[in-house]
Amino acid sequence: MTFADTLLSDSLAIALPILLAALGGLFTEAAGTLNVALEGLIVAGAFSFAAAAEATGSIGIGIAAALACSAAFAILAAAAADRLSANPFVAALAVNLLVAGAVGIASEHVFGTKGVVPLADLLSPRVDLGAFSRIPLLGPLLFRQRGISYLVAGACAAAAASYSSTPFGLRVRALGMREGSLRIAGVDPRTVRYWAFAASGAACALAGVALARSVGAWVPNIASGRGWIALVVVYLGRKRPAGLALASLAFGFLFALSNAAQAVLSVPPELILVLPYVVTAAAALLEGTGGARGSRG
Amino acid sequence: MTPRPDPRKPAFSGLGALPALAAALAAAAIYILAASEDPASAFRAFFLSPFTRPVVLANLVELAAAPCLCALGTALVFRSGDFNLGGEGQAYAGGTAAVLILLAVPSLPGPAGLAGGFLAGAAAGAATSLPSALSRRTRGADVLLSTFLVSQAVVLALDWAIAGPLRDPSSNLIATPVVSDAYRLPRLFPPSGLSFAPLLAAAAAFCLDRFLRTSRRGLELNLYGRNPAFAASVGFRVRAYAFWPLLVSGALNGAAGALLALGSNGRAVRGMTGGIGWNGISIALLAGNDPRWVLPAALFFAWLEVGSRQVSILAGISADVGTVAKALVLLLATARFLGSRRREARK
Prior knowledge:
The structure holds 2 protein chains of 2 kinds. Helices cover 73% and strands 1% of the residues of chain A.
């Protein structure tokens, strides 16, 4: 593959898990309470997948474990806010910390180490669609990705469709815009909020599975900031699925570029990674709503 | 941006914080009970060993100082109705700036150098929070996201700088050169690392408490945080209150970074802040954003940290038990338990 092939193909592979996590975040943002625990939920999903798949030898059971575990942590944050009147934002920050501690402990018990655990069986192989994959640029980009990337792409499409055009998506958006309208329609807003959080957990779980399967290992801090980037993507993408996709691709490209930079360009990779934060920070700083406290609603 | 739930309402402080503390300690105890072959000695290591040796206790008190400064600034921003999520980058910038200034002027008298280092650290921390504060003041932009993003950019840039152009090539650590010995925080109780930093933190807590409870500006800030529309309608300087708390918080985070750099390391080490910004948020919330309770809350966190380190060394239990305990404190720090829920229901 040429440099351009690799760069584009890697950009998409990196962007997809970020997009999926961001779509999960979008459900909660639209429901009125942004779940800032995406980073932790990705780690929880990746770890529970690695542990369960390694123990049972079944990728399917691993994915089921990841979905259950991340959704449970997400629901914990929602429940702390709902049942104990905790600040939902703080509760989600706490879940991030809780996952970090719990995964550290669990890793010592399951794998006997807190470090990297190579799990070659879990590596998702690259597909090769023969003639298709030899099309210049498009071939490597679309037809020579790892198998897990297609699953994640499908999940992204399903999440976007569910957000835009299913009754559940409509209820989630209605909850954020006018909670009273749900009550009038006979829908319990609390249930919808719990489901939105569970959806964010499930999306992050699959993102975590994709990260673990793309390296064939359990790596501590495997999310390495992707959950935070996903939150940024929610805002940078203007809270619309298509916008989220564009923003994720931009981040994916910058990550891929920073990976390639060390070998090919003379720019240090850390400095390339600063760029998306600077761009997004500039966008956030310039987001004006007219006067102090204007944006608090 | 989403309307945020009110972060200013102190959930509880002082005795009211007991449920969060109890849950954290209970979780630690249950895990130790389940994972240890000799629970009695593991319990002693976690809960008591920090108090049995004066050196360990002195280190614990020193450990509380920097997060205490961060938490004071965070509490001030909470009182004004905002979140400062940029503590990590502000502290990192402060620590690095303090070291760079002191490396540039190696022959000042010690106290003058230390004071200069702290000022440089505070200025760098404030400068890191300045873009967010300015956009808050002039455009009403939400600082939650902007403080975090600016901080992340600063962290990545400093990670690069410390590993690259600022690195001391003769050291195995990824770190800057060491500052002159005269600029290191003097140790009050060697061989422990105890310095005057905890006194500085206590003094800062005292000043902030006096400001918030007895000065006109402090009372106005409180009112503004609770009800900005009301504050604007009675002619308070609301634009100033959307600006200064963030800047002061940045400065306190920067000073905390300087404490870290000029303490045991004497240099800026890559990744040296190690979550201090997040700890600051937890401590501020545990203290109910009340400066009088910030130092005790910081000491409690330092105890969890030292205890989990001790239990890991002495009893082979994962040090992450401390992280889980801290997470539970944060999870429950803003919760309201049955009593207050009933009270609310009655209202």
